[in-house]
């Protein structure tokens, strides 16, 4: 009792529900400790290896004591030049390497700290929903108010933004975007981004585009960068990640590119919090950006094949599936009558009775209820097995 008076947390903690992936992971670990072979489609944590050349560079540079010192926090000059060249090569965008690029300890860290730098109490942030949790909670932690905008239909999405901007005072300060989108796999085109830039200028809001899945695309679809649109740099930034394009999720390296003032604000706040990314990882990152363009299509093809295996399997057991054109997830509507039990309970039963871990849609906000997110991180054989085990679990479920 006495302890309750001593150990007290900041009020912002009251707004943070238990982290969805943490709960699912805990259940999975317990089962695995008991000897169960859980097929893990829960988290978007790539299982495939980082390209060899990147690993070799890390190993060599890590042996050099110079790399053990505090690193260059915004990114090594050559790494910053390399991301500028990458954007030039892939998207025909000119970036000032010095002022318009900043490297972060993964894009999640960057997005979180940028929110602390550009928003606070009294500010309103628009977030498409369902949403990857940090898109909502980074703003919540910063003390801002989040207004969720249902992601689909696309036309309705822009209309909702206009209505909110016209009726909300003070009007929204930031629009958070994420194309290709996690968890739904929804993609977009340059016309949509053009409209967004127009609205940002009309209603004076900043735009953040999380482009983590920019290169994991299927069926010939090419995802546009937000910065390809004329005037985009006047209103916003884009975050990218090495986690998915190069299977470097555990390395913790991502970047922010775009509007100079926003990039500067990110650097200012990060200067207080951290010292940047281990130099050896930064040098290895140069190799990824410079030499690994050719490995990306092969990696995307692996996910595309897995998507086909999983979607075909789910269709065979009667699920109505929309095949995503990008990302590394299948966003699957839970069929009747199982949808009545709610996505969390359904996911728990799939885990307990089928040894398959999935992410319940409700974890991506209320708009995700009724869905599951299945990560394409297991190989094709395991995905086929997962569908068989899901079917068996569903046959045993009491609704
Ligand atoms: C949409 C989205 N953004 C960002 C991240 C995190 O990327 P990083 O590993 O660069 O922090 C993820 C990871 O799953 C994601 O799905």
TrEMBL record:
Q: Which InterPro entries does the UniProt entry name for this protein?
A: Aminotransferase_I/II_large, LL-DAP_aminotransferase, NHTrfase_class1_PyrdxlP-BS, PyrdxlP-dep_Trfase, PyrdxlP-dep_Trfase_major, PyrdxlP-dep_Trfase_small
Write out the GO MF terms. pyridoxal phosphate binding; transaminase activity
Provide this UniProt record's keywords sorted from A to Z. Answer: Aminotransferase, Transferase
Q: Which cofactor does it need?
A: pyridoxal 5'-phosphate
Q: Does the keyword Transport apply?
A: no
> What top-level class of enzyme does the UniProt entry assign?
transferase
Aminotransferase class I/classII large domain boundaries: 37-388
Catalytic activity, EC: 2.6.1.-
Q: Which family does it belong to?
A: Belongs to the class-I pyridoxal-phosphate-dependent aminotransferase family.
What's the protein here called? Answer: Aminotransferase
Q: Specify the species.
A: Desulfobacter postgatei 2ac9
């Amino acid at each position: 009792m006495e302890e309750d008076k001593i150990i007290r947390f900041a009020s912002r903690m009251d707004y943070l529900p238990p982290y969805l992936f943490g709960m699912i992971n805990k259940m999975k670990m317990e089962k695995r400790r008991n000897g169960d072979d859980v097929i893990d489609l829960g988290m978007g944590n790539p299982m495939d290896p980082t390209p060899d050349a990147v690993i070799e560079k890390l190993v060599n540079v890590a042996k050099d004591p110079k790399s053990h010192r505090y690193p260059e926090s915004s990114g090594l000059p050559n790494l910053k030049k390399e991301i500028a060249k990458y954007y030039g090569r892939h998207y025909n965008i000119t970036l000032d390497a010095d002022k318009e690029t900043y490297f972060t300890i993964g894009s999640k860290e960057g997005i979180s700290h940028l929110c602390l730098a550009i928003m606070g109490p009294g500010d309103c942030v628009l977030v498409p929903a369902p949403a990857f949790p940090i898109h909502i909670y980074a703003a919540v932690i910063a003390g801002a108010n989040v207004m969720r905008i249902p992601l689909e239909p696309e036309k309705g999405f822009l209309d909702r933004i206009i209505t909110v901007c016209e009726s909300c005072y003070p009007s929204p300060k930031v629009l958070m975007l994420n194309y290709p989108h996690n968890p739904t796999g929804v993609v977009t085109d340059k016309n949509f981004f053009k409209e967004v830039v127009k609205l940002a200028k009309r209603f004076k809001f900043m735009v953040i585009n999380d482009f983590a899945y920019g290169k994991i695309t299927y069926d010939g679809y090419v995802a546009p960068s937000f910065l390809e649109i004329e005037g985009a740099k006047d209103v916003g930034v884009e975050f990218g990640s090495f986690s998915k394009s190069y299977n470097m999720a555990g390395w913790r390296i991502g970047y922010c590119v775009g509007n100079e003032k926003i990039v500067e604000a990110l650097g200012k706040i990060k200067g207080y919090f951290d010292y940047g990314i281990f130099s050896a990882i930064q040098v290895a990152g140069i190799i990824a950006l410079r030499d690994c363009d050719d490995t990306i299509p092969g990696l995307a093809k692996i996910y595309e094949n897995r998507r086909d295996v999983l979607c075909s399997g789910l269709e065979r057991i009667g699920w109505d599936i929309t095949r995503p054109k990008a990302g590394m997830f299948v966003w699957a509507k839970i069929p009747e009558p199982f949808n009545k039990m709610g996505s969390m309970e359904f996911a728990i039963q799939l885990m307990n009775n089928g040894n398959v871990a999935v992410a319940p849609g409700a974890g991506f906000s209320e708009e995700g209820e009724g869905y599951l997110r299945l990560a394409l991180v297991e190989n094709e054989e395991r995905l086929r097995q997962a569908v068989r085990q899901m079917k068996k679990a569903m046959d045993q479920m009491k609704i």
